[in-house]
Here is the input.
Amino acid sequence: MSEVDVALHHKVQQVSNLVVRLSEQVGSVSGQVSAVQADQQETRTELQQLRDEFLAFVKTAQLTANVQRAEIRVGVIQDQVDHEFGHYKTVRRTAVGMLQAFDLGLVSEDNVRMVGDQLMLQTPRYWLAPALVALASWSADDRSLCERAVEEAFRRSPDRTSLFFALVLRRQNRQEAAVRWLRHYLLAQDPAALGREFAVILESIAQGAFGLAGRELLNSTLARWRERLMDSEEAQTKQITRWREEVDSLAQPSAAAEFPRLVQICPQWQQLDGVLSRARAHQVVLDKYRAILDQEFQPSERLEDAVDDILDRLVSEYDGEELPLRRDLAFNHAVIDHGGDLDAARHAADADSASYEETLDYLTVQTTAALNPAAIGTSPATQRLSVAACQEWFLQAHAGFTRDYRAAMPQDVQAHFGTAYTVTAQTFHLPPWTGSFRQPLPDLERSLNAHWDQHMQPFIASYAYPWAKKVTPLALVLVGILVLVGAASIPVALVIAAVVGGVWGLVLRNGAQAAARHQENARRILEQAKLESLHQLRAASAELTDWNEKFRAADGVEPHCRELIKSLVTATRGGSPFEGRTVAKEGTAS
Here is the structure.
């Protein structure tokens, strides 16, 4: 072999080595690009997770700060309440105890002097203190002191003083005098702005505390008030709204766990979920108010005990001066109870707002006694009668609730697919596909399958190796070798062309094999995604059938619920469950 041949062979070997190294570097770079893309995705995920954790930390810190501020505020307000109104508790504890002492004949002139000296000095503005002085002096037959004390109590609070003496006289079985005080109390009332103590009137009706004469007076007065207030459309709308809020509050939690596929692919899921949760409220309403109506009440054997309970409610009421502090105290307690959630605390405080209102109209008192008796201190017996009194508003609210959720039923329930899939360092975007469940399921499956094939086949085809693009440079190089080197030596040119073509062909084959692997991988991933979407479609269709059955069952309770509400008109006819006892006692006394 000549020196020229040896040199050419050496050059060819160098070119071959360079081509092989270039092929290896191309493969390495391709792998590095994939790794970088994976690292970028992982970095984005970690950043999102870090952001979520930071926001959660900020929220937790804010809630903790809210709780701490509320705890401090509770201590400050409680100290203020104890300082300014602490003596009121003493008077309240004394009131019922003094009445019970009357039964045992333990009230003497010394008791009167003690009550006058202590209570009047400790609570110079509180109506109950002079009322108790009047009560004690009346028992001790001190007419002058009694009259002065009554006048002072009346000056401080005519409403509560009148009601207090009406109950005390009824307790002593002085029915005629009790009814006179009761009439005096009722005549002074504005049904559009009743004092907080009026809840005691409802309690007295439920307990049958004023006997037949008192019942007739109350029934005629309350009927006149109701007729007057019912002329106001605004007043009625207000009560219907409160009853609607009551029914709305009984809607059941989300059913997302029962229908996971519908949650994923159904654009109307929020509507479906809301409709079902509200339809399920019927059973809760039925159970709750059936329990209220069916509950049996055991009246006290002694009228004195029943009146004592009512008096206890009257004298334990917060005075008007206390209400702003009590309202603030209740809100801060709610903040603590709800873990610092101010919105939830405010909602809870609003639900008990009747507890801290100075005046309420008669219709609102009835609704509050029915929906939240604890807010105004009434018993379950009073709640039962109040629910019946609110029957008309309850029925309208329930009908509106039913009408609204039925109207919210989506006319067309659909399945929606369209998302992105990462396939060998590329992203395949499936264009949106929407199908209506009004169509038969096989038609939907065929449509979705065709949609996948239409869009994924071009994407898969894009992974095919571009032979034309890759072979053209090789042909140009070979022609160049034959022309340039062939001018000196045709055999050498053929040898070089053969070596370069062989090495380049090896690189092209490797590239084609890699492209084929990527193409097959993309096909496998997308076929699996298509199969999964078809499974989701079938599962969602089955869940929709299940949803319809559960909705029909829940909605089917509505007529029973409606009948229960209608029956409230007659369910409590005859008034108080205690009246039979009262009438019997009065008949015996006569």
Remarks:
- The first strand starts at residue 194 and ends at 195.
- Confidence is low (pLDDT under 50) at residues 573-590.
